[in-house]
Amino acid sequence: PLPATPENITRGTNLANFSQGGGGTNLLPALKHALAMPQPDDVSRSIVVVTDGFVDIEKEAFQLVSTSLDQANLFAFGIGSSVNRWLIEGLARAGRGEPFVVLNPEEAAKTATRFREYISSPVLTDIQVRYEGFASTDAQPEIYPDLFADRPIEIIGKWTGKPEGRIIV
């Protein structure tokens, strides 16, 4: 991994500006590789998938993302006039995020700005939840994503016991 210095950001932007897509999308191996990369304990990692989404492993990708929330946040960005919205929206749901879709070049800058604002305010990482005064069963998600200012964490489940209890995050 490279540090996000102004020089490296410029180099990455320049590389992306002159790259040409083509061929198939090998999404699952790329996700597995990204999630397997070493990560310092004090760093919140975000993975951004940018694709037109022409793949046939959607369900496997959703499962991998939803079971890896403790390793990285995942954001899905669909680009192109015929984006696989099921993939982009499913990855976003699995990653507890919001889908971003750009159908034509005129939308690109506005959508990129919205995305940058969305992820620019991390609030909490390594979230642990416990229940006091009542028991909880079937709580979802089992793994909690990082909390961003514009991305709430919803916990859904069943409880037994007194309703006066509290949830400690």
Outline the fold blueprint.
Layout: H1 6-17, H2 27-36, E1 46-51, H3 58-66, E2 73-79, H4 85-94, E3 100-102, H5 105-119, E4 122-124, E5 130-140, E6 147-148, E7 156-168
Parallel strand pairs: 1-2, 2-3
Antiparallel strand pairs: 4-6, 5-7
Helix pairs in contact: 2-3, 3-4
Please tell me about this protein's structure:
This protein is of the alpha/beta class. 33% of the residues lie in helices and 27% in strands. It is built from 5 helices and 7 strands. It has helices spanning 6-17, 27-36, 58-66, 85-94, 105-119; strands at 46-51, 73-79, 100-102, 122-124, 130-140, 147-148, 156-168. Strands 1-2-3 form a 3-stranded parallel sheet, with helices on both faces. It has a two-stranded antiparallel sheet with strand order 4-6. A two-stranded antiparallel sheet has the order 5-7. β1 (46-51), α3 (58-66) and β2 form a beta-alpha-beta unit. α2 packs parallel to α3 (58-66). The longest helix has 15 residues, at 105-119. It is globular. The model has no long low-confidence stretch (mean pLDDT 84).
Structural descriptors:
single chain; 169 residues; alpha/beta; two-stranded antiparallel ribbon; 27% strand; globular
Whole-number average pLDDT?
84
Structural class: alpha/beta
| Cα-based radius of gyration, to the nearest Å | 18 Å
Morphology:
globular
SSE series: HHEHEHEHEEEE
Please estimate the helix content: 25-40%
